[in-house]
């Protein structure tokens, strides 16, 4: 998916609650189109301050998950690898995700191991070809069943990827400049837990697909970091206090 013409947005089921409103502009909205086109060298340099988290205690490995934000350069521009889950999957069918999954204590000594192992299993990405340069802000799942560790992995050259059809219905290789485009990114503000608080929800309307949920939140954190802006933290952060934009037709989507 490289910015080809077509209808933006997919058929993903989004449980938008009553009272949802459009949110704020993207953190990078002030950047010119030229500054939104990044090379792999620029991505690596801007991730230099990311740390590798310490190993988790053995007792927490079973509640941990990890994903890989895999980045490589094509046509002089950095691209991100996303996957589409099959509609037959019991959890999150048809959703867009990063390669990754649960930590298996029998196979993995750390969440980073799990991210690399799952990427190999899902899209045939050789772990030896990935330079893990750091980890983004961890993210608990909404129901707090797992803590997701997102790792940024740099790949030299264009990888030859082969999706496992049991776990991956399709690959999306998206230029960072497209993800940063004003016509792709949007924020919505959703009522949260019925307590008068709100949370920001992030969306990326690609051609034929919509990225949302935990994947979009992690992606926003990554894009904010590489463009020099603050990104979202965990779902448990303080309630959203930004502007609520009134709109007669509500949020797009």
Description:
This protein has helices spanning 40-46, 111-123, 176-179, 213-226; strands spanning 21-22, 64-74, 77-84, 96-97, 100-102, 130-135, 139-140, 147-155, 170-175, 185-192, 197-206, 209-211. The protein is of the alpha+beta class. The strands form two sheets. Strands 2, 3, 4, 5, 6, 7, 8 and 9 form an eight-stranded mixed β-sheet that branches. Strands 1-10-11-12 form a four-stranded antiparallel β-sheet. A hairpin with a 2-residue loop joins β2 and β3. The chain is globular and about 45 Å long. Residues 239-253 have low confidence and may be disordered.
What is the secondary structure topology, with strand pairs?
Elements: E1 21-22, H1 40-46, E2 64-74, E3 77-84, E4 96-97, E5 100-102, H2 111-123, E6 130-135, E7 139-140, E8 147-155, E9 170-175, H3 176-179, E10 185-192, E11 197-206, E12 209-211, H4 213-226
Entry summary:
The protein is an alpha+beta fold.
Keywords for this entry:
Nucleoside Triphosphate Pyrophosphohydrolase; alpha+beta; eight-stranded mixed sheet; 253 residues; four-stranded antiparallel sheet; single chain
């Amino acid at each position: 998916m490289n910015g080809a013409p077509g209808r933006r947005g997919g058929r993903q089921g989004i449980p938008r609650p009553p009272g949802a409103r459009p949110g704020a502009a993207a953190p990078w909205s002030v950047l010119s189109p030229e500054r939104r086109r990044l090379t792999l060298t620029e991505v690596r340099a801007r991730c230099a301050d990311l740390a590798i988290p310490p190993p988790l205690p053995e007792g927490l490995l079973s509640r941990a998950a990890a994903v890989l934000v895999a980045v490589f350069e094509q046509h002089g521009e950095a691209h991100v690898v996303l996957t589409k889950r099959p509609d037959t999957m019991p959890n999150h069918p048809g959703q867009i995700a990063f390669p990754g999954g649960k930590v298996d204590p029998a196979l993995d000594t750390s969440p980073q191991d799990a991210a690399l192992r799952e990427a190999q299993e899902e899209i045939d990405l050789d772990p030896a070809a990935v330079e893990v340069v750091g980890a983004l802000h961890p993210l608990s799942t909404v129901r707090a069943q797992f803590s997701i560790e997102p790792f940024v992995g740099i790949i030299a050259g264009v990888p030859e990827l082969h999706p496992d059809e049991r776990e991956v219905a399709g690959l999306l290789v998206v230029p960072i400049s497209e993800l940063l485009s004003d016509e792709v990114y949007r924020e919505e503000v959703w009522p949260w837990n019925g307590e008068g608080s709100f949370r920001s929800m992030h969306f990326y309307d690609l051609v034929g697909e919509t990225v949302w949920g935990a994947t979009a939140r992690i992606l926003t954190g990554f894009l904010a970091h590489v463009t020099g802006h603050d990104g979202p933290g965990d779902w448990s952060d303080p309630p959203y206090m930004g502007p609520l934009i009134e709109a007669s037709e509500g949020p797009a989507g």
